[in-house]
Design goal:
By secondary structure, the chain is an alpha/beta fold. It is built from twelve helices and 14 strands.
């Protein structure tokens, strides 16, 4: 039987907007390529500013994207989060359910979380995120029963900031024989919580990081960071942008290159890399093939708007995997 993957993280609905001119970001006082956490009032202001723009809505959030991708690849998945009692929350739950994800959702009186993903003409994305109900994720919901039906537990790196939740979720997963996977998600979150991360790394099996996140954790180069992390976990992956990715397990080190593709939108590239890599791990492929699949899925997602692909692109990707 194939392994089952449970994820935890913010349940957000991505609202994707393409802009031709970055001046509108200046008008909103949002730095290009940043990830801003905004309140409800600011969210309403941005909604008003973009009211006449074409928008694409999709279930989002870092871990949710990876879990959604795994479900599309045929892996049994579940996802833990909080949503509001509103249309946005209903949209998120139905969208995840429609691809086979089992939503383990708790309901809040706060509005559901949203993430404006504003895509510039060069493909760079700028996020303005209203976490909403997702902020109510807390350690009291973490019980042994959550983990009994799962083999892997995928943790969104943004949860590191909630130290009691982060610690308890990982320890409960390990106590219930789940392998723990962590995507570091954000260099500033890593930087602010370096001590907690170093404390918890020995309880984590697989770590994904990009170059900036790895450097924030270790104050080392990408390659040295790879060795540092791999000494503490089973498998370490450091993504190095256009240069590809580095993978280490035990004494084995693999470098994966990139192919030249037309970049439309980089939203979800890291999340999809994780989905492809984990698909390979679950199917017991070697590290090189896992990395190739992760890279191919990341390259596929950056050729479309948003962190979700249509069925034709998924079919083409599945054929590519079979050809491997």
């Amino acid at each position: 039987m194939k392994a089952r993957v449970l994820g935890i993280g913010s349940a957000l609905v991505d609202i994707l907007i393409r802009i031709k001119d970055d001046e509108i970001l200046n008008e909103l006082n949002i730095p290009k390529a940043s990830m801003q956490i905004i309140d409800e009032e600011r969210s309403a202001q941005i909604t008003e500013k973009f009211k006449d723009y074409e928008k694409i809505m999709a279930p989002g959030g870092s871990a949710a994207n990876t879990i959604h991708g795994l479900a599309k690849l045929g892996i049994e998945t579940g996802f833990i989060s909080y949503i509001g009692k509103d249309n946005i929350g209903e949209f998120f739950e139905k969208s995840m359910n429609s691809v086979g994800v089992k939503p383990i959702v708790f309901h809040s009186d706060l509005p559901s979380g949203t993430a404006f993903a504003i895509v510039s003409s060069d493909g760079e994305r700028t996020f303005a995120t209203h976490l909403g109900a997702s902020t109510e994720l807390n350690d009291s919901i973490i019980t042994d029963e959550l983990f009994t039906a799962w083999d892997y537990f995928y943790v969104e790196g943004y949860l590191i900031a909630n130290v009691p939740l982060f610690r308890k979720a990982i320890m409960k997963a390990k106590e219930n024989n789940c392998k723990v996977i962590l995507d570091l998600a954000s260099y500033n979150v890593v930087e602010s919580n370096r001590d907690v991360l170093n404390e918890m790394l020995p309880y984590i099996d697989i770590v994904f990081a990009n170059e900036e996140e790895a450097k924030s954790l270790t104050n080392m180069s990408a390659e040295d960071s790879l060795h540092y992390i791999a000494d503490k976990v089973d498998t370490a992956i450091v993504k190095i942008g256009k240069k590809g990715s580095l993978i280490k397990k035990g004494e084995e080190v693999v470098r994966i290159g990139c192919n030249k593709v037309d970049v439309i939108d980089t939203t979800g590239a890291g999340d999809m890399y994780a989905a492809g890599f984990l698909f390979g791990i679950i199917n017991e492929y070697d590290l090189e093939r896992c990395g190739i699949i992760g890279n191919l899925l990341a390259e596929s997602i950056i050729q479309v708007m948003g962190a979700k692909m249509d069925e034709n692109r998924w079919d083409a990707f599945s054929k590519t995997i079979n050809d491997l």
